[in-house]
Amino acid sequence: MKTFEEKWTAWLDGQLSGKELAEFEASLPDKAAAEAEKRDVKKLGVLLKRELGAGVLRNEEFFSHQLRERVARESVEPPRKQAAEVSTWWTIRRLFLTGTVSLAFFLVFAVFVMREKNPAEQSQYLTQILNARVDPAISPNATISMFEAKEDRVTVLWTEGLQSLPADYAAK
Amino acid sequence: MCRLLLAFTTFFALVMSAAIPARADETVWSGLVIAQNVQQPEPIPVELTRIERPLKELFGYNQFQVIGQSHKTLKTGQEDWLATSKFFGLHVDARGESEAGYILNLKLYKEKELLLETDAKLSKRSPLIIKGPQVGGGQLLLVLIVR
To answer: For A85, which of A39, A104, A171, B59 is 20 to 30 Å away at the CA?
Structure first.
């Protein structure tokens, strides 16, 4: 069972016929006003078809124009890219070369600095006595001291009171 | 690009090899020395010429005789060796090497009797002198020098 709105839409579209058409038109309270509305709807339909058709046409032209421009742009781009590569100084290769040369300079200077610095540092190195001990059972009065003769770069462990030995012990 | 990389690698290797000096094997001279005052002193042994002045000034003797010695070439810094005379023995035990020198444990024996023990960091540029026991009218000295 169709509702009134369904029948109204079908009547506007001219899809009612026969008994159904006669019954629907009989049910309209103001047939003249309904006919006028039907005419307006048809006019609107014609208008919309015309306008929409023109719009689709414009879009096609627009997209065609866009595509043509893009194709033209892409066909021109490679030479422009090449031109850009040539004109830019900082290419990857040149960056690599610059980095290499900088690193080389750094290493050379680092080597010279290290070589100049090392002798001065090492000259401060003196032999160090970490600890010393004597057997108290053998040398109960022994004492130990240590000092450095810095001008001669000599370190001395000085013992006193070690067991004295006869001259025979000086034999080779 | 490959040639460039090769050139760079070669340059880097050369620079690094120059930066890290090749370490030659070093020799430690260990000596048992008797210092004495005599009328006609003998010339100082060649091993001690480097420290002749401090030896004479510090100990006050005019003659220095080597009664036992050892030349030990160190390769790992972990070697041990012995310098001996008829009655004395100096046992040296190297326990590692640093940039400054060698860590040594020294033991002075009179025959089998341990008289003195010490641990020292022997610098490659600084000799070590140890005053040992009195022997007759002289003095036993222990000397270690890195050459």
So the answer is: A104
Enumerate the residues of chain A whose CB falls inside 8 A of the CB of residue B140.
Answer: 165, 169-170
Q: State whether B136 and A170 contact (CB < 8 Å).
A: yes
Q: Which residues contact A34 (CB under 8 A, 6 or more apart)?
A: A11, A28
Q: B132 and A108 in contact by Cβ < 8 A?
A: no
Alpha helix (H) residue ranges in chain A: 4-12, 18-27, 31-87, 92-123
**Do A131 and A117 fall into the same domain?**
no
What would you report as the CA-atom Rg of chain A, rounded to the nearest whole angstrom?
Answer: 56
Same domain? For A139 and A119 the reply is no
pLDDT in 10s for each residue of chain B, 147 residues: 556 555 656 665 655 555 544 456 789 999 999 999 999 999 999 999 999 999 999 999 999 999 999 999 988 888 999 999 999 999 999 998 877 789 999 999 998 899 999 999 998 889 999 999 999 999 999 999 998
Same domain, A9 and A75: yes
The predicted pLDDT at position B132 comes to: 94
Q: What is the spatial distance between Cα A19 and Cα A26, in angstroms, rounded to a whole number?
A: 10
Distance from CA of A158 to the nearest CA of B (A): 5
Pairwise CB contact (< 8 Å): A167 & B129: no
Which residue(s) pair with A123 in the sheet?
A: none
Contact A172 B85 (CB under 8 A): yes
Average pLDDT, chain A: 81
Q: Which domain holds residue A163?
A: 126-172
Residue in A with minimal Cα distance to B127:
A154
Predicted TM-score (pTM) of the model is 0.57
* Chain A positions in Cβ-Cβ contact with residue B131 (cut-off 8 Å): 156-159
In the block, residue with structure tokens 């006919």: A35
